[in-house]
Specification:
Belongs to the malic enzymes family. It comes from Labrys miyagiensis. This protein has 23 helices and 14 strands. Helix 9 crosses helix 19 and helix 13 packs parallel to helix 20. The longest helix has 21 residues. It is of the alpha/beta class.
Length: 542
């Protein structure tokens, strides 16, 4: 065990990275001054995990379970990850979506131990100093948010910190990225959520959001501070509003190791779903036409990655983009509209205006519809029935999170299409029985992508994250889906196998990184072994 001299006695039991709780042996208790501070009989990590399972089983509320796990992470990190990694499929919805949405909404009212780094815009000029207060000096991953567009819940200010914390927990639980290299960060530039500003318990700056040049200067100072303090760090941008997410990514993607999971990770998991769906329908990607409900950064990110994948299969990029069409609150995105942002214009069609989504389905005859609107129930019966009229196996992907924001449920998609829909959603839905057949809906969760991307970057010490790396990741996810799963309609690997799936994806992406000279280390003879050698396993140090 490291830091033994500076961590002993009561202080050791308050150090989450070194604490073993009741698992300290009798010899360790004597050596570190722990005798009398713990129940007298030592236990094992296995029994500690069983105790946490039992505690969770006595709770009937997911937010209470989230809080129990958060408290555990704050006092015993090894045990926390041993619990998560004992059954990732069960714990992912508790530490991340959908439960994390409620936790973020109630953040100021349930705040316990602080975790991560908060950088307020009032500290401009001192961000390096504040970042340097983090005790770990070799940070490889920062997940950062400014809290403006948390899931489909909107501006939650500093309450958005639940997202970076949850994402980084899944980096470790689902792909084995060692937690000591991970840092959650929230940039507090204010909030436009008046209910938060009026709440006496709100923990963030009580001012409206800073915009424009001052905001971008703040972002730039943050990026530069990270480069100085943590030169091998990858920055993952998370839950920024479209007006900031797109320009931030464009500014830094070719300068530092960075990516935006809402744009690129969401796109990759959607593309993975496409590859899986096409294994069911037997069609080619270049023959598909997709209609998106929603025109923000998630929609354009998916549309662009699908377009790039189509181009790799021989389609002209302009023709590929014409096959990925956006529909937002103002109707179909057509070239005659004057309200389109620059990042939306590549997908604008030369077409007459269309004001309703079901009319757009009839007019464009898409093979698949993808929901990233965060508005529930917009894939209504008329829309699903129209898709089923046009396609033998319509692709229906309501990807909005959390569950309350999903454009339709699995049961609605299956029933209204006569059981023919190829379905995946952003939030989990249970199996559905249609005409005596059990259909298993897939969850197009970014967890298939970002932990594996993190492990690939960590193992190779990559200098950049490129767009094509996400296409490689999508193919690596899809190739793991078995024929047995496809027969039930499941187009993603089972989440119970997420750890193995993530390491497979990480190895594929790492191979690309070495092939394209993006690694900081020498290429090994066996890339799979390299990835496996870097995996964190929750175990107490001897």
């Amino acid at each position: 065990m490291s830091d033994q001299n500076s961590n002993s006695g009561y202080a050791l039991l308050r150090n989450p990275r070194l604490n073993k709780g009741s698992a300290f042996s009798e010899e360790e208790r004597r050596a570190y001054g722990l005798e009398g501070l713990l129940p007298p009989v030592p236990t094992t990590l296995t029994l500690q995990v069983a105790r946490i399972h039992a505690e969770l089983g006595n709770l009937d509320n997911d937010l209470q379970k989230y809080l129990l796990l958060s408290d555990l992470q704050a006092r015993n990190e090894t045990l926390f990850y041993a619990v998560l990694m004992s059954d990732p499929a069960t714990f992912m919805p508790l530490v991340y979506t959908p439960t994390v949405g409620e936790a973020c909404q109630k953040f100021d009212h349930i705040f316990r131990a602080s975790r991560g780094v908060y950088l307020p815009i009032t500290a401009r000029g001192r961000l390096k100093e504040l970042l340097d207060n983090w005790p770990m000096k070799d940070v490889r991953f920062i997940v950062v948010t400014d809290g403006e567009r948390i899931l489909g819940l909107g501006d939650l200010g500093v309450g958005g910190m639940g997202i970076p914390i949850g994402k980084l927990a899944l980096y470790t639980a689902c792909a084995g990225v060692p937690p000591e290299y991970c840092l959650p960060v929230t940039l507090d530039v204010g909030t436009n959520n008046e209910s938060l500003l009026e709440d006496p318990l709100y923990l963030g700056l009580r001012q409206h959001r800073v915009r424009g040049a001052d905001y971008m200067a703040f972002i730039n100072e943050f990026v530069q501070a990270v480069q100085v303090l943590y030169p091998r760090c990858c920055i993952q941008w998370e839950d920024f509003a479209n007006i900031n997410a797109v320009p931030i990514l464009e500014t830094y993607r070719d300068k530092v190791c960075t990516y935006n999971d809402d744009i690129q990770g969401t796109a990759a998991v959607a593309l993975a779903g496409m590859y899986g769906a096409l294994r069911i329908s037997g069609q080619k990607l270049t023959d598909q036409r997709f209609l998106f409900l929603g025109g923000g950064s998630a929609a354009t990110g998916i549309a662009e990655l699908i377009s790039q994948a189509m181009a790799l299969e021989g389609l002209d990029i302009a023709a590929a983009r014409d096959r990925n069409t956006l529909f937002d609150i103002n109707g179909l995105m057509v070239k005659s509209r004057t309200d389109l942002a620059d990042f939306q214009k590549p997908f604008a069609l030369d077409h007459a205006p269309v004001s309703t989504f079901v009319e757009a389905v009839h007019a464009l005859r898409p093979t698949g519809i993808i929901g990233v609107s965060t508005v529930p129930k917009l894939f209504n019966q008329r829309v699903i029935e129209a898709m089923a009229e046009i396609n033998e196996r319509p692709i229906i992907f309501p990807y909005s999170n959390p569950t309350s924001r999903s454009e339709c449920t699995a049961e609605e998609a299956y029933r209204w299409s006569g059981g023919r829909a190829i379905f995946a959603s952003g939030s989990p839905f249970g199996p559905v029985e249609i005409a005596g057949k059990i259909l298993v809906p897939g969850q197009g969760n970014n967890v298939y992508i970002f932990p594996a991307m993190g492990m690939a970057v960590f193992a190779t010490e990559a200098t950049r994250v490129t767009e094509e790396m996400f296409i490689v990741a999508a193919k690596a996810v899809a190739e793991q889906v078995t024929d047995k799963s496809l027969a039930t309609g499941l187009i993603y690997p089972p989440q119970s196998q997420i750890f193995e799936a993530s390491l497979h994806v990480a190895a594929r992406v790492a191979e690309y990184i070495f092939d394209h000279k993006l690694a900081r280390i020498e290429r090994p003879a066996d890339i799979g072994k390299l990835v496996a050698s870097r995996v964190y396993h929750p175990a107490y140090a001897a």
